[in-house]
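hey so i finally got around to running the thing on that chain from the lab meeting. sorry it took forever, my laptop kept dying and i had to restart like 3 times. anyway pasting the input first so we r on the same page abt which one it is
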Amino acid sequence: MNIFEALRISHVTQRALADHLIQTHGDSPDRMSLFSELKRELAAHAAAEERFFYVPLIAHDMTQEPSRHGIAEHHQMDKLIEQLDTTDFSASAWLVTAKALHHKIYHHLEDEEQGVFQLAGKVLSEAEKLSLAKEYEGEFASQRLKS
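ok and heres what got predicted. didnt touch it at all, straight out
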């Protein structure tokens, strides 16, 4: 498995969780559970992706700016998560913010899959793509256990 395939596994999970989350209502166990799982998935993915995808790409002129942009989007999602954490689950503002997070997730993943992956494919060797995938997967698993 290469780094792109490894990242896409989490991308599928993120999309599914975000889709289900915005279908929930009020202060329900379903909303709490989905939010907790999405928060854990995003945190583990961002930590591992930044370390074993974006940081290596920053070293290349072609992928430096897109990598910085991707990291900035992770921080934007973190802010939305913080807002959701401090908003009552039954407040209408909670769903508004959850929909903003849903939109940001989809935008970020599309940027990566339709742009950054293609550029990264040009600057990373096949061996790097494989070794980064192994390092990403190990870090992702470690981060998931922390959450």
